[in-house]
Amino acid sequence: MNPASQDQETADKFASSWLNVYAAGVYSEEQFLEWIAPWTLGEIADQSVLELGCGSGALLVHTLKGKPARLVGVDLGDSVRRARELLAGTAAVIEKADLTDHTDLLRRFGTFDRVYCIGVLHHLKEPRRGFESLLLLTRPGGRFHGWVYAREGNALVRFTVEPLRRLAHRLPWWVNKYALALPLAVPFFLYSQLCRALTRAPGAEQLLPMFRYMLWISRREFRFHHHVAFDQLVSPQTAFIPRATVEQWLADPRIEPGSSYVILRNGNGWKFGGRIRAL
C-alpha cells in the first residue's frame, strides 16, 4: 500500500483542525524550546533545517528565530495552506508531501543539517517509516530529533481517553470539539490545577497519575487544555511508544555511536535523537 494512502485520513483530520479550529500561535516559544532540547536556537543558525509534519507552521515560526540558512516544512495535509499564510514574507518553504515517502522527499529536498519531527510519528500507521525519514533526510554528520507519546506514564490516557478517541475521530470536527473535547477539558483543567496546588505535598508525584505532565500544563490557560483534549480525540490512530522501541530505533548503524539520547519529557513522552555518521 502507498504510504501516503495509509496516513491521508490522519493528515486530513489534523488539517481540518488547523484550518477551522486551532490558533496558529497555540505553541509558545518556551514550549518549542523544551520540545527541541537538547538542541538550542543558537545551534540552528546558518544551518539547513527540515520539519517533518509541520501542520500549521506553529513550530516553524519559532525555528525561524534561530536564523537557519534554509528552512523547509512538509506536511501531507492541507494545513500547509495555513502554514504558508503564517510564514508569508519569510524565507521558509512549505510543501505538501508525505513524510514517509523517502524517495520523493530526497528527490525534492535533498538532505539537511538538522531534521526534526515533533508529535507526529505516533500518529502514523508505521511510525518506524517516519523515523527512517529522520535518518535518510539528515546529511552525514547532521543531527535529527523527535518527540513521541510514551507508553510509560500514559496509562490514564490509554485507558480513559483512547476508547473515546476511537469513536470521536469519526465525528464532524465541531461535534468532537464542543460536544466531547470541551466537557472533557473541564475535569482535565481542574485536575491539573489540583496537581499544581499539591506541588509540595509529600508523595503527590507517586500517588497522582501523570503528575509531572499536569504540573507542566497547569501553567497554561483552559483554552490550551481544550486544545490538547481535542488533539487527543481527533486522530484516527495513536500509538504510545515504549522506550525499548525508541532504543531499538536508535541502535541503527547509520547513527554515530555515543551520539544518541532518549529523554523522558514530563513523565509521558520520549525525546530522542542523535547524529548521522559522517562519511
Task: Name some characteristics of this structure.
alpha/beta; 279 residues; 2 domains; 7 strands; Rossmann fold; single chain; 16% strand
Task: Summarize it.
The chain is of the alpha/beta class.
Explain what you see.
There is one protein chain. With 279 residues, the protein is α/β, with parallel strands linked by helices. Helix content is 47%, strand content 16%. The chain contains 13 helices and 7 strands. Strands 3-2-1-4-5-7-6 form a 7-stranded mixed beta sheet, sandwiched between helices.
CATH fold title of the largest domain: Rossmann fold
CATH class of the largest domain: Alpha Beta
Number of strands: 7
Spell out the CATH superfamily of the largest domain: Vaccinia Virus protein VP39
| Helicity range | 40-55%
Q: What is the strand content?
A: 15-25%
CATH architecture of the largest domain: 3-Layer(aba) Sandwich
Label the overall shape.
Answer: globular
Unreliable segments (pLDDT under 50, ≥5 consecutive)? Answer: none
Helices, by number, come to: 13
Main sheet specs: 7 strands, mixed
Rg for CA atoms? 18 Å
Distance between the termini: 33 Å
List the helices and strands and how they pair.
Layout: H1 3-20, H2 29-36, H3 41-44, E1 48-52, H4 60-64, E2 70-75, H5 80-86, E3 93-96, H6 102-109, E4 112-118, H7 127-136, E5 138-149, H8 155-168, H9 173-197, H10 204-207, H11 211-217, H12 222-234, H13 243-250, E6 261-265, E7 269-275
Parallel strand pairs: 1-2, 1-4, 2-3, 4-5
Antiparallel strand pairs: 5-7, 6-7
